[in-house]
Amino acid sequence: MSDKPTFYITTPIYYPSDNLHIGHAYTTVAADTMARYKKMRGYDAYFLTGSDEHGQKIQRRAAAANMQPKEFVDQIIKSFKELWKILQVENDDFIRTTDAHHEKYAQELFQQIYEQGDIYKSEYEGWYCTSCETFFTELQVGEEHVCPDCGKPAELMKEESYFFRMSKYADRWLKFIEENPDFIQPESRRNEMVNFVKQGLEDLCVSRTTFDWGIKVPFDEKHVIYVWFDALINYISALKKDDNSLYEKFWPADVHLVGKDIIRFHTIIWPIMLMAAGLPLPKHVLGHGWVLLGDGKMSKSKGNVVDPVILCDRYGSDAIRYFQKREMQYGQDCTYSEANLALRINNDLANDYGNLLSRTTGMLEKFQEGLVLAPSAGTDFDADLIQLAKDTPAAFAALMDKMEWANALAELWKLVGKANKYIDDVAPWALNKEGKKEELATVLYNMVEVLRMVTVMVAPVMPSLLPKVWAQLGISERDDLASWESLKWGLFPAGTKINRGEPLFPRIDIDAIKAQMEAAAAEAAQEEAAPAEPEPEIEPLAEECVYDDFAKVDLRVVKVLECIKVPKADKLLQFKLEMGGEERTVLSGIAKFYQPEELVGKKLILVANLAPRKIRGIESKGMLLSAAIGDKLQVIEAPDMPTGSRVC
Ligand code: MSP
Q1: What pLDDT does residue 313 have?
Q2: Which residues does ligand 1 sit against, CB inside 6 Å?
Q3: Three-class SS of residue 219?
Q4: Has this prediction a pTM greater than 0.85?
């Protein structure tokens, strides 16, 4: 068995229903960078990513695409894997929650927690956002009944469910966080989570019965396991593929890298699941910020400017990876635009790094017939440069170890900047003119050596850069000069003949990009003025029912005598209805769709035998029927029928 230290890093597993954009790619590229860096530092690093394939959202999307859920996800997973390849993501495993070993382990864990009494049966009544696959309380969805996270309409749910006794673990969780202050990073997110738990933890609904695309609860097959409870388990089930050896080697994970939107699942629910199961907790959860898409008008279907495949094709995946790591400050959001990307490429890669390479190789060709000569007599400027080159690996590593990628790259670029300044200070062309051959040889050697060291350090961020630079520097066979251990000054072999090549990062015409962006924005503004009808999502059919069930519902034609808005309730209208001589009051949540006066005099359909319900202190006797899809709603009318007629 290897005695190398281990490092296990994971990304969230992605929903196959979404088009992955440059923001999604951030997490996976960051984890890949970290895994590559750790491997370079001598770790036995294991990097897991995958796909989160169950749940109501996927089932609905598949139904809308007229496909079976598995068939639907299979097709999307292919494009995920292709994207990761294009972005040079080298994951050690790709877990799918539909993998048999995952399903088996998720069921085992559910059963174990149930048997010990931390999962119990009850009934869930509350709100659910299918897009986020998250439960919310009345308070959280507010009067508008929208998801507090994504803003989409939440659905009212009432169904038999199993619950996980989270509340029981709140104190233990708080104690754990107190003892492990760096478990949640950055600190601001830790404080948020601690405040959340201090307000009291509710038990979590962990099974669903109104659809079936999920892992069955092993002891009650009418239920499927709640998709988040299922998904979080992937971090361990992936290690239990064949036998227990990967688990023994890599669990607990060193880092779960996640976007800030899903930090609560990873830092509260997941650790409590593990506490309940008696398993060790991961060491760190890092919640990174979001890549914001400017004014949000760009989409994959419009200018394609957020599609990582197109961006990689246009600028190369090294540049995209560099941009992502350099642009987003630790824990903060950043705004993506193609102009920012182009600016970063021009400044950091074409100007700073690219110029250093082309100036170095150019002068070596011009002054020394392409030969790197051994250093001898030097200049007054050498010592500073060499000292910085010697100090940079430790400074860079300290920031990389803390996953402060933007700062780590800024540190590294100080050395690139220093080397460019060094060239200006020593003016090798003047040394050449003056015939100071020894000094010139030393200066050119120093430039090559800085280039080599910078390229080694940046390799986890831009993996395909190093072989290209090695080819230009004439050291393609020398893998030993690419290791972390080789980051010692003076290892570049004197006598090497270089092969000058094309610039690795051609400059980008930023004005052209800006013009493109303005044209895209103008087009988007025009589209907004005449918005295209979005394809509404069709809800899957409800469970089959027998005629007798339907016959129990008494539907009648009613006439609207009065209709007013309910004060302080944005959604509610209050109706006085007449039905065969009888008058009754009914409330309906359709205020968003109608002005009250529009409805007065109309003949509508009422579920007349529904048990009365008090809403905001007013008793509502029945429910008016409407047809609804997406954002559209229309009441059902029977204009020519006498009131009291039965609808059958
Ligand atoms: N399926 C869940 C994760 C389950 S993990 C047990 C999920 N999937 S997702 O596809 O919606 O998101 C995957 C990752 O992409 C998350 O970390 C999310 O934060 C990240 N991002 C999605 N959009 C993003 C940006 N615009 N910027 C940065 N990261 C973003 O959540």
Answers
A1: 92
A2: 12-15, 18, 23-24, 26-27, 52, 231-232, 234, 258-259, 261-262, 290-291
A3: coil
A4: no
